[in-house]
Every structure is written in C-alpha cells, then in structure tokens.
C-alpha cells in the first residue's frame, strides 16, 4: 500500500476512535494482565527452589521449637495455661511467615539492580502501585506456604496442640504481619545497593524485632521499661494477636474486644507503610538514577 494511503488510513482510524491519540495511554485503570503476570512470575521464582524457600525455613523454624522446648519447657512448664511448646508454636509460625515475606520482596528489585535486569520490571506498562502490589502479593503467598509448612511440622511434634480458637485473628494477624514485612522488604531492596546492605537490614533490624517481640516469653516478665519498649514494637502485636487466634489468650488480652484495637492499629500501620513505599517507588529513588 502506498505511504499516502497508509497515513490516511491511520488518520481515519484515529478519528473514528479505533486508535488512541499519540501520547494517550492505551491501558487505563488497573492493568490486570500485567499485574497477574508479575505476580505469577514472582511466585514461580520462589517455587522453582521451594526446597530452599519453603521447606528449609520450615525445618529451621521447627528446630527453634525443639531447642527452646528442651531448654525452657522441662518439668511441665506452662504459660497462659498451656504447655510451653503449645505456647511457643504460634509465635514461631508467624515469625517464619514474616521473615520469609521480607526475604522474598527484598530480593525482587535488588537482584534486578545488581544483575542489570531491573529494566524488565520498569519498562512494562505497570504503575508503581501495580508493581508494589504484585511483589507484595507474591511475598505474602510465600509467607502462607511457609506458615503451612511450619504448622505441619509442629503439629507432628509431641506436646504441641494447634487447635484454633479464633479464625479471624489467625487470618488477620497472619496477613498483616506478612504484608508488613513484605512492604519493609520492598523498601529495603529499594535502598540497598548490594546484598550486604539487605543482609544488614535483616540481621540488625528484622531479626532483633522478631526475637524480642514476646515469641518465647510473656512481656509481663520484663521490667516496666522493657515492657514499654515491647509495646511500641509492631512485631509484638502480630505475634500476640496470632497467638490469641490459637490459644484464645495473649499478652494483649483474652477477649475479641481486647484485640480489635491492635488489629485496627496494624491495618493503619500497613496503610501508612504502603503509602510510603508507593511514594518512594514513584520518586524513582535509587531505581531510575
């Protein structure tokens, strides 16, 4: 077809609305196909090495249960009216979920920055919100798989009873904890320039906050100053709320009403954190420079 005819056809089609004007976005609203594709890509990435990403964390967390039960759970020790192993198990499950949510989301952008493949995430027609949503959703998915693997291992351990008293608390606090760490992991991967930086955040921020959040003890046993510090640690509310879902008791309280404020607070905290991550992604800081 002659060039003149081709241009005429294109102009005519544009007038009829078959093609958008130049500079106008072709995809409006949420790019569902792109978002789903990113999510599936991230899920397949960790499923390819599931021995390392799902089962290994399950085994290592299970070893925590064995070691602390042997060291601290002798002579029929009870906490909150249950044996020590049953008390510790829920906290270890959600701790494993949170740590692996962080590991998954913190690897996504950082590996692209180091390997030079980050353009594969930035060039597709995905908004900053869709990019964040796909990575965070995949990290939460991995957290759920790890939580299931850990729970399965602990259910087989003698003395552990994983009966669920409040399903809403297990689901809500589990998802809020995984989402919080997924967002923190994404923020860490934006800031980090090499794997050492990411490991520093994990070792000096995430691990201490996890271990000093009442996973292995009641904060009532601490001095008043340390109790106050524990109560500003968001990990404490995740672990205590998750434990409440299994035992019907926690450091926060023994009723649904006592946990509602903590549940709302975690939701608000995650919304604020998501907004911060979104604005950082939008700015292109340490990504597009």
From TrEMBL:
Q: Region Disordered: what ranges?
A: 1-20
Q: Membrane spanning segments where?
A: 54-73, 80-102, 131-157, 169-192, 204-223, 235-252, 258-281
Q: How does it sit in the membrane?
A: Multi-pass membrane protein
Record domain ABC transmembrane type-2: where: 48-284
Where's it found, cell-wise? Cell inner membrane; Membrane
**What does the similarity note say?**
Belongs to the ABC-2 integral membrane protein family.
Keywords, A to Z, come to:
Cell membrane, Membrane, Transmembrane, Transmembrane helix, Transport
What InterPro entries does this protein map onto?
Answer: ABC-2_transport_permease, ABC2_TM, ABC2_TM_bact-type, ABC_2_transport
Name listed for the protein in its UniProt record: Transport permease protein
Q: Which Pfam families match?
A: ABC2_membrane
Q: What is its main location?
A: membrane
């Amino acid at each position: 077809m002659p060039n003149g005819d081709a241009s005429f056809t294109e102009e005519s089609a544009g007038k009829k609305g078959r093609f958008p004007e130049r500079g106008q976005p072709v995809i409006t609203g949420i790019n569902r196909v792109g978002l789903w594709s990113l999510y599936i890509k991230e899920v397949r990435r960790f499923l390819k090495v599931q021995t390392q990403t799902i089962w290994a964390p399950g085994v290592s967390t299970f070893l925590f249960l064995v070691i602390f039960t042997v060291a601290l759970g002798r002579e029929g020790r009870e906490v909150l009216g249950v044996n020590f192993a049953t008390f510790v198990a829920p906290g270890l499950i959600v701790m494993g979920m949170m740590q692996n949510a962080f590991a998954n989301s913190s690897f996504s952008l950082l590996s692209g920055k180091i390997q030079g493949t980050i353009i594969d995430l930035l060039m597709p027609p995905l908004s900053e919100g869709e990019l964040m949503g796909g990575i965070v959703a995949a990290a939460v998915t991995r957290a759920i798989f790890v939580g299931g693997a850990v729970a399965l291992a602990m259910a087989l351990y003698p003395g552990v009873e994983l009966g669920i008293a409040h399903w809403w608390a297990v689901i809500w606090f589990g998802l809020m904890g995984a989402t919080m760490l997924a967002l923190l992991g994404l923020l860490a991967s934006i800031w980090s320039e090499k794997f050492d930086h990411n490991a520093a955040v994990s070792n000096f921020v995430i691990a201490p906050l996890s271990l000093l959040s009442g996973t292995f003890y009641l904060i009532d046993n601490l001095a008043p100053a340390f109790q106050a510090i524990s109560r500003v640690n968001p990990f404490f509310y995740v672990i205590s709320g998750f434990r409440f879902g299994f035992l019907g008791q926690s450091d926060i309280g023994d009723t649904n009403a006592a946990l509602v404020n903590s549940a709302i607070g975690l939701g608000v905290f995650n919304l604020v954190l998501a907004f911060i991550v979104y604005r950082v992604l939008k700015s292109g800081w340490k990504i597009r420079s």
